[in-house]
Amino acid sequence: MFPVAVIEDAAAAEVSLDPVRARLLAELAEPASATMLAARVGLPRQKVNYHLRALESHGLVELVEERRKGNVTERMMRATAASYVISPTALAAVQPDPARSPDRLSARWLLAVAGRLVRDVGLLITGAAKAKQRVATFALDGEVRFASAADRAAFAEELTAAVTTLVGKYHDETAEKGRNHRVVVAVHPSVPEEPAHGA
Question: What three-state secondary structure class fits 75?
């Protein structure tokens, strides 16, 4: 099971967004049969089986074991990932395009950049999985508390200068065997985390 998987297919995205199927995916972090799931989610086993077949046909769940119980074969299923991200590729006709109205200070432009990031990394992961290779990536994630809007603006200026200097130092347009890498740096207000269910 992957920690996270990217859904690139529109039909798979539609299947995963169904509330019942999304609940089944969450329940299938650990292997379970249709009978076990039916008891957990309060649905008839036949209906659970129907939803499991749809999820399986799109690669969102997988068979991990078959058990014989009398005259019945019980299929133990598990989600293929602990969590899923739907790539903008699934909505190809309307996926965000950062080339439209680029504005470093626009939250909507940041969203378009983030959408492109999900799309690109999703495609890289898919390609790397087929080639049985790893993707060379790096990410930083942190939090800073600004005392004022002026401090935030000064931080943005210094960050821009530092990243520009670093890119200028290492970017080599003449490197024949070089490979382009995209650099994305984003600053946005933190969103408070919701308390865990039952907490």
Answer: strand
